[in-house]
Amino acid sequence: MYEKDGESYFVVDSHLHFWDASPENWVQGQEQYAKGWIECFHAYQGLGPAETHWPIEKFQRYSEEDFVRDVFEEGHVDFGIFQSTYLKAWYREGFNTAEKNATLVEKHPDKLMLNGRFDPREGEAGLRQLEEDAKRYNLKGVKVYTAEWYNGSRGWTLKDPEAHRFLEKCQELGIKNVHAHKGPTIWPLDKDAFDVKDIDVAATSFPELNFIIEHVGLPRIEDFCFMATQEPNVYAGLAVVIGALMHARPRFFNKVMGELLFWVGEDKMLFSSDYAIWEPKWQVEGFVDWNFPQESDYSDYPEVTTATKKKIMGLNAAKLYDIEVPQELRLPDEAGEPAARDAAVAVESA
Fold first, then answer.
1. Which residues, including other chains, have CB under 8 Å from residue 345's CB and lie 6 or more apart?
2. Of 4, 33, 181, 342, which has the most beta carbons under 10 Å away?
3. pLDDT (tens digit per residue) in 53-64
4. Residue 197, SS3?
C-alpha cells in the first residue's frame, strides 16, 4: 500500500518479470541475438532516473532478493502479475518462463500471480501445453508475443485461424485475460509484428475475453486509442508509458496519458512497471504526484482525480483478476461506462 497526502492506494503491478539473460543461458550460435536483446532492454532502463540504473551484469540476471526488495519492500506493490516471455530461440532455458516465475509465486502466493503464454505456431503441442499450464498454475491470464521468432518464422498475428484456436482454448480453460505486447520493438524483433491492427479482430471475435494491450501500441498511440474506444474488452497496459516517458519525456507522457484518458477511459487502464526494466518505486510515487500542467492547455482531456489514480494503480487490475482489495482501499460504487464521452471533463485552469 502506498500512502500520500492522506490517501491510500492499493497497487497492483500487472507486468513483472523474473528473467535470466545471462551468458550462461545463451543458445550456442545465437549469442549475438541473446546479447543484443538484453542490451536493448538495458538501454530502455536509461530512460528512468539515473539513480535507478543497473550495471549490465546485474540486469542480465538479478536475484530473488533484488526482486522482493525492489517490488514489495521498497516498491509499494501490494500484488504483482508475472508475464511470461520465452524466447527459446536465443535463451536455452527461456528468458522469463512460467516455470521460473512460479518459483517466486510459490514463495509469495499472497502477493504474486502467474500468467502463462501461448504461440499458435506450436500447434497441437502448444494447445496441450497451454492446458497443462492452466491446470498446474491455475491461470487467469496469458501473455502473447506476436513478434517472437520460431522455426524460421518472425511473427504471427491474432487474426490467424490458428490463434483463434488458442483463444477458444483459453475460454474453455477459464483464462479470461490476454496480454498482448503491442509497442516498441526490441532488437532484433520486427516492429511491424507488434502492430495493433490484429487486436480489434480478436476482441470482436472473443467478447468474453479481456485484451490488455501492453505498451498501448506505442508508437502507434492514435491507432490504439481509436480502436480501443470501440472495443469494450480492450484495455491499456501502461508498461513503457510510465517507465519510459514520465521521467524522460514528460510532455509526450502528458499527451499519451491525455489521449488514453479521453478515448479509452480511466476504468480501462492498468499500472505496469515492466520490472526489471524499471523499478516500481519511482513510478508509483511519480504517478501519484502527476497531473497535467496547469500552465498548458489540456482542457480537452479528462480531469485526473484521486479516484482516477486509484483505479489505474490497482483497482482496475484487481477487478480483472478477482484480487481481493481491503475494504478501506476500495472506492464507492462507480458510475458510468469506460471511455464514456461525458467523462471528458475539462481540467480546471488555475
1. 302, 303
2. 181
3. 999 999 999 999
4. helix
- The H-assigned helical ranges of the chain are 31-45, 56-60, 64-68, 98-107, 123-137, 161-173, 199-205, 221-228, 250-259, 280-289, 306-310, 316-321
- pLDDT value of residue 333: 74
Q: Which residues contact 75 (CB under 8 A, 6 or more apart)?
A: 13, 273, 275, 279, 280, 281, 284
What is the β-pairing status of strands 2-4 and 7-9?
antiparallel
Q: Is the pLDDT of residue 238 over 70?
A: yes
Residue 174 included in any domain: yes
Burial (CB < 10 A; 0-12, 13-18, 19+), residue 3, is: exposed
* Rounded Cα–Cα distance for residues 57 and 61 (Å): 7
- CATH number for 38: 3.20.20.140
Domain count, the chain: 1
Q: Which residues pair with 241 in a beta bridge?
A: none
Residues 70-74: contacts with CB under 8 Å, at least 24 apart: 70/275, 70/276, 70/279, 70/280, 70/281, 71/13, 71/16, 71/273, 71/275, 71/280, 72/108, 72/111, 74/279, 74/281
Q: Grid coordinates standing for 260?
A: 488514453
User: Is 144 part of any domain?
Assistant: yes
* Stated pTM of the model: 0.93
263 and 292 Cβ atoms separated by less than 8 Å: no
All three cell numbers of 120, joined, read 499458435
In a domain, 269, yes or no: yes
Show the domain range for 203: 2-321
Range 68-96 average pLDDT: 97
Query: Does residue 95 form part of some domain?
Result: yes
Q: How far apart, in whole angstroms, are the C-alpha atoms of residue 288 and residue 197? A: 32
CA angle (146, 274, 25) in 5-degree steps = 70
State phi, psi for 211 to the nearest 5 degrees.
-110, 110
Q: Residue 172 and residue 104: Cα distance in Å, rounded?
A: 27
169 vs 178: CA distance, rounded Å: 12
